[in-house]
Write a structure and sequence with these properties.
By secondary structure, the protein is α+β, with helices and mostly antiparallel strands. The protein has 7 helices and 5 strands, in the order E-E-E-H-H-E-E-H-H-H-H-H.
């Protein structure tokens, strides 16, 4: 359960202003009962259309919200962009096919998904496009590894990979590859 979030603005050595959100969770096992998670936010945009437009652009077409695979791509694409620090921030839980946000689903169902504009940098869109082009199995494995690591920051890469494999054993090759890209101590 999120107790509170803080918006903090700092200066980096390159004199660039960076922002991050700190979420503090009640957790009896660590840090005197609290766990902190810091997320960098490159843009504090509350308009979900910017995130949705970025996934459309990375995919190279407009998402068809009536198609299951397109909805999966939207969920996973927005999750990746969120974790890379692009907003608006959504809360995700682990579902059958990886991270899922009911808030994002609600936003997507309320808006027309075409003709949207994004301010997310081209390099982020290119990186996301490369992940999406690998297919939905890889996208699911990649985001599952990200979520497992996010929810278990103290676990090493072997433990993260084992947990991701426990969740989705059918995606063994994809999970191993995603772990080698995402986790630094593989």
């Amino acid at each position: 359960m999120v107790i509170f979030g803080l918006f903090i603005k700092i200066s980096t050595p390159k004199k660039m202003s960076q922002c991050f959100i700190v979420h503090v969770y009640r957790n009896k096992k660590y840090n005197n009962g609290f766990t902190c998670r810091r997320m960098w936010i490159h843009q504090m945009d509350r308009d979900p259309s910017t995130l949705i437009a970025a996934v459309n652009k990375a995919l190279g077409r407009t998402i068809d919200w009536h198609d299951y695979n397109d909805r999966l791509i939207m969920q996973k694409g927005c999750y990746i962009l969120n974790r890379w620090g692009y907003g608006p921030y959504y809360t995700y839980g682990l579902y059958i096919r990886g991270p899922y946000s009911t808030e994002l689903t609600d936003d997507c169902e309320r808006m027309i998904l075409s003709n949207l504009r994004t301010v997310i940098p081209e390099e982020a869109l290119t990186a996301l496009s490369g992940i999406i082009k690998r297919g939905t199995d890889y996208l699911e494995a990649y985001t599952t590894v990200m979520l497992v690591k996010e929810n278990n920051p103290s676990r090493n890469s072997i433990a993260v990979m084992k947990k991701a494999l426990d969740i989705r054993p059918a995606l063994k090759d994809e999970i191993e590859e995603a772990c080698s890209l995402i986790l630094t101590d593989c």
